[in-house]
Amino acid sequence: MLKGTLDMMILRTLVAGDAHGHTIAKVIERTSEEMLEVEQGSLYPALHRLEDRRWVSSHWGVSENNRKAKFYRLTAVGRKQLTSETSRWRQMARAIALVMGEMPSEGGNE
Amino acid sequence: MSWRRFFRRRPADAELVQEINLHLAEEIDENVARGIPPQEASRRAYVKFGSPTKVREQAWTRNSIAPLETLLRNVRFAGRMLARNPGYAFLAILTLGLGIGANTAIFTVINGVLLRPLPYANAAQLVHVDLTSAKLGPDPLLLSVQEVRDFREQNHVFSDLAEYHAMTFTLLGAKEPERVATGVVSGNYFTVLGVKPLLGRLIVASDESQTAPPVLMLSYAYWKKEFNGDRNIIGRTFEMNDRVHTVVGVLPPLPEYPDANDVYMPTTSCPFRSAPATIANRDGRMVTSYATLKPGVTLAQANSDLAALTQRLALQYPKSYPASAGIAPLTAAVESELTHAARPTFLILLGASGLVLLLACANLANIALSRQMQRSREMAIRMATGASQWNLFSQLLTESLLIALAGGVLGIGIAAIGSRLLIDYAARMTTLADGIHVDGRVLLFDLGLSLLAGLLFGVLPGYVASRVRLTSLSDSGERTTGSGTGTRMRSILVASQVTISFVLLLCAGLMLHSLYNLLSVDPGFKTANVLSMRLSLNWTKYQKSETSRAFFHQALERVQVLPGVQGAAVSMAVPLNSDMGPMKTGVLIEGQPVHPDEPLPQIDFAIVSPDYFRVLGTPLLAGRPFLASDAVDAPPVVIVNDRMARRYWPHENPIGRRVAFGSEKERKWATVVGVTSDIREYGLDKAPTETIYFAPDQAGMSNGSLLVRTSGSPMYLAAQIEKIIHQIDPQQPVADVRTIEQIRSAQLGTPRVTSVLLSLFAAVALFITIVGVSGTLALSVARRSKEIGIRIALGATRQNILRNVLTRGLLPVLIGLAMGSLAAAFATRVLATMLFGIKPDDPSTFIAIAVLLLAVAVLGCLIPARRAAKVDPMIALRTE
Question: Which pTM value belongs to this model?
């Protein structure tokens, strides 16, 4: 996974509402049609990092399965950050696409 | 990284564990729901998640502050090491505590006296302005009222100039009639100093006019002492010089500068200063002045401006500024006047205590080095298990810093007590001693010094330890491999210790020698059993010379007949009185040629009653003493001292020769009737000057001191004598009741304390050094026991071994002595101003100290050397 994109995707996931770590991982996997498999261990350091930057806040609640869980919520600063990251990502994706142009169907390594 | 997270690491970790557990539980649930068997479901969940421990570690590191972590770990470890060696820890902390404490105590004095700003708003610009006369001597000439006016009006360098002089007057209206030290000041004096009143108002320009009602300002100390700090004092009236004075203000606590005055009055209130004759007389130099420099003007510029001004005055009034006198202006910063006496003493003491601390550090480094050699195995193991050199170094440095900081805490306590003991001592040299107390700057100094000391004694052992080699792990007896550096370092340390202690011992030796010289000075009279008291007469009451004469006659008559009194005399001043300098006057000596371009011989003069020399026990060398018949209308007579007689009548009999004083018109000739031996009038350290003595009846005396020789303890009679004085005049104050012996020991006080302090430092230095010398040698003997055993087995005699070990032990001592004598040549020069009767490079002291140090070092080396000679070759060879 590209560096920095995990943070962006976590923030994007939280737009839908508060979620705990497992839900976030699941949502990313499901919406990417299982293409992106979050290295689940690295999710937590990322969440804590975002919390340190005050892009997300956390509170304890009860999970769907009635377990005590730590829920993360997008803060106003985080929302702003998400907007700017998204637009930067779009520019980047477009730029890369332009460079790559038409791809030979069976060429290259990937 | 944040402080909050750093201290919340444990709860944060617990939360993280909870989060991870929840995550895994949810994942397992999902897997199970998909129909995977529970065990496999759990396995897959863990595989997908990765290592929970790794995640926790990552979070932990993220929340840590690495250097702080290391520091805390090092501190904990150092604490454990020290707790395991309480003896070493105690000794080290005590040594450093004493060293840091002594330094901090002395710094407290320096901080209070030299570093603290003066309590004057204009302190930096404030200068003392006076005239000097190069040809007549170093003492200032003072200024006349005319000169003050000229200086004030014609200078280009001062923003303002104020006039000052001190008098004593009798103040009536307090509990008892009292002689008060009075500062007589111009209206701008306090604004020039930059002082605000504590109560009421200052003396201002409008007070300085003949028609203004007389006003007084009280000094803080006098207000506290006499009126218990009564805030209603403003407006109270007192009678002085037959006039009613109103108190208008109280001054804040200020240094006793220029004098310790009780009250202040404007110049117009002083009957002497305001007399028209005084004002008109350009030669009547009785006042001094203080001025503030204009911004940007230096002392040197001020001096040259005034020099030009004085030259103009000299052209205008040639008689008042004879070329022969070499009259010139002299400006000096008030700040340096207040501190110059204390500065060298305390800087020298700080230097000495600093050296002692350095020595203590060297010794601790030495001890730490030997501990290091014992711990080299431990260090090698730690290195083998992955510790870096820096790890080991910082670990050991933490240990020494911990000791040093503990020493610093102890040092603060010692400084708090020590500085209190030093206040009286400092007060002899400066009037700023009130400002001595432990403050923030002192605490900072203590902390800085502790850290420095910790670094100083920690760096070397740390360095040696970090260079430990893994070979010391092998059991091949290669214990010396890692410690060759250590032994060499120890020898260097010993040599520098010897250097430092030699310098300290030499300084102490010089001070003690100088003190001994002072103690054995013959003041020219017998100091024991003489009581003195000051009787300054109220000038308004004793305006006529007959009345003052009658008073002194009556006092002498009544005191002389008291039981226990062997003799009584009055004189103008008390001998050994260092508050005063010589009062020289030009004297015409019959038969001596007079050069018109040169000033007359300047001779000190004194007024003494007939029994003076008998009371003091000063032998009369020729002629006769004063007699009762040397009365006011009898032919004028004088007595000269030996020095005067030898200088002006060498190989001749001075008896019968004549001397004359005063201006040409009213010149009076007096006959020399006696020659007395020399007396040190102005202090033990001041050589007697050429002196002429007058009889009080013929010279007139309004301020005198009563001197009484008693058969028993002099103070015993003090109350009785005071009662007699009050019988003669109930309003006559009696001041400064002291024995001459007290005056003498007060003069010895400062050099005595300086010598004691320096000797104390030197003794500690000597002790530390000898411990270092013999300890180092003992260790090297222990280390070399195998080698010594082999030598003995091969036929070396005990003497050979003894000599060999002694030579080795004394080599660093000799090197240290050589370096010490070089260093001492510079170091002792700073002592020069404080020494009496001895040069700073006095060879006898130098040799004596070197021999002492060497002798003690030999003694210190003898014990380990004898142990080496007793080595049993069999045992030595078997043990290794």
Answer: 0.75
